[in-house]
């Protein structure tokens, strides 16, 4: 299992065995804080009463360490890993809510004979688990379970989920009964009775609602500067992904104030001018003192590395290619950690879905039977309306962001529509989201799209190159501050992310935000259209897939749908 994860932890490896409790911890280390052998994992406290294997960063570990020192706790390293252990031994599970960072870790308490699996509140770092025959196995990537011979049984429903969502949503994976631990939760395993319970740990305290726009701007400014500054902590080379968009540009400018001439930035550009953001990157770079690494990515690069990209995915997805390339270059440029702008769109209304919610509200007033009856007569661009034949928030989300309709998925997979609907609409736990407003959209984008696609793909693609990606917009204190702002101020229907932009005026140049949104996208419509396998309709077995691929070759279908079909073609 450890060997299969070597790409994410190339610097060191370790095992801990406790025969009495039938326990083995394994670890692959990516050294970022305290590069010495003191950071070796699995790690124990000084008295060896507890052990930990930990993936991630605790950004406020120095503050917690100082608290513990005042309580008489002794340390033998300056790592955040040892702080987690000592905090747990001092405060128990109450310690988990004190951590600000991105983390997935396991703690073994040898006195109480308990093992804990713990995941951060934003779900930035993944942790998967499998319980079978009174045993618990866990890993940070799904591939480790098959590599270790723990389980190889496939979840036969994963192609359904991929074709609907464009990814495999939590808690599901490609393996049967291998699940993702929910964010902000811990699993407690009793090593004596081989029983477990999953609990949510305490979240940061809710703040009073902010209704004054000037106060809101000041709160955002203060919280984001604090987030960026503490996420710059590293004993290894660190940089920022600079795409040229609002989010990455803002983070770069704030990080530059902290690091100045030491700041590294990494950028990508293309020969295809429609996707090239060099001009906007240049606007920001003119204000920086540090070093920029800029890389041209061409069609041939995509062709050359395509099989490596597929392998790096761990589980099928229709995103992450951009993250794979920029992580590759960051690693080659000598960096161990980078800052990314993921999260700003979700928290400040940066997607079209925020304005489309009013149309969804209108459609939901119509009888669902209308959408069910229309499934055989709707043209391709409108087939997603048939999602509304089903009740619930997942159907709403799939109308906004889904790929293939239930009827089309059934045809592609040779299944019946009822089975497809059962998998999609009866196996996801979504709370009542209330009125169809921008808060509703923010929940969708944060807890479904960002959680299941952006964060997972960013983590697995970056770790495939031994690179850590940090996301200041998802800092617990920052998101708590943003969520305390009333929706009327937080969102703006005429300009996306207006509150964020205004909070950092005049630091953020107008030419960066006063332009059409591009997103961090690649020319994949062209590149995949020229890929000899993806666009080869003879490789697809069913009639509908062949039809979709032929439309793709004529540029009438988005590349992501063709890519989804490509990844399941061997399974249908």
UniProtKB/TrEMBL annotation:
Q: What's one Pfam family here?
A: Asn_synthase
**GTP-binding in keyword set:** no
What biological processes does GO assign it? asparagine biosynthetic process
| Enzymatic reactions | L-aspartate + L-glutamine + ATP + H2O = L-asparagine + L-glutamate + AMP + diphosphate + H(+)
Q: What's the EC number here?
A: 6.3.5.4
What residues does the Glutamine amidotransferase type-2 domain cover? 1-192
Residue numbers binding ATP: 268, 340-341
Gene3D superfamilies reported for this sequence: Glutamine Phosphoribosylpyrophosphate, subunit 1, domain 1 (3.60.20.10), HUPs (3.40.50.620)
- Biological pathway: Amino-acid biosynthesis; L-asparagine biosynthesis; L-asparagine from L-aspartate (L-Gln route): step 1/1
Q: Where are the transmembrane segments?
A: none
Record protein name field: asparagine synthase (glutamine-hydrolyzing)
Asked whether the keyword ATP-binding is assigned, the reply is yes
Origin, by domain of life? Bacteria
- The EC category is ligase
**InterPro entries in the record:** Asn_synth_AEB (IPR006426), Asn_synthase (IPR001962), ASN_synthetase/amidase (IPR051786), AsnB_N (IPR033738), GATase_2_dom (IPR017932), Ntn_hydrolases_N (IPR029055), Rossmann-like_a/b/a_fold (IPR014729)
Binding residues for L-glutamine = 80
Source organism lineage? Bacteria, Pseudomonadati, Bacteroidota, Sphingobacteriia, Sphingobacteriales
Q: Describe the family membership recorded for this protein in Swiss-Prot or TrEMBL.
A: Belongs to the asparagine synthetase family.
What are the alphabetically sorted keywords of the record?
ATP-binding, Glutamine amidotransferase, Nucleotide-binding
